Amino acid sequence: MLKPKVKQNSVDLYFMDARSKLIDIAAFMDRVERDGLTDDFRYRAFKDALNQLDADKRAEAVLRALSDPTLEPIEAAITKAACGAWPEKPR
After folding, report:
1. Residue 81 falls inside a structural domain
2. Which of 25, 36, 46, 84 has the most Cβ atoms closer than 10 angstroms to its Cβ?
């Protein structure tokens, strides 16, 4: 495996992209809250996922916060597409 001669600075490489995404997230949250849709299960899961950013394995914790934790497969899908969050997660 080839390694660069000089170690790349992750902040230099990815900060502007992460900054842009953070601004998008803030704007999304402002719109949802302004529209009074904070009880939507997807938004609740989104907020829960944001709380996982302080976890040790944050990427895994965020993914788990947005995923269906059940182990048994469902008999039939109730929608045509994934919705990105588990609708039956308790509050």
Report:
1. no
2. 46
Whole-number Å distance between alpha carbons of 90 and 82: 19
Instruction: Report how far residue 63's alpha carbon sits from residue 85's, in angstroms, rounded to the nearest whole number.
Output: 10
Provide the domain count of the chain: 1
pLDDT in tens, 43-91: 999 999 999 999 999 999 999 999 888 888 878 777 766 778 878 766 5
Instruction: At 28, list the tokens.
Output: 């999304």
Torsion over CA: 90, 50, 86, 71 (sign): negative
- The residue type found at 53 is L
Pairwise CA distance, residues 15 & 21, whole Å:
10
Residue of 28, 23, 27, 41 lying closest to 84 (CA atoms): 41
85 lies in a domain? no
Give the domain extent around 29: 11-66
Which of 29, 63, 54, 26 has its CA nearest to residue 44?
Answer: 29
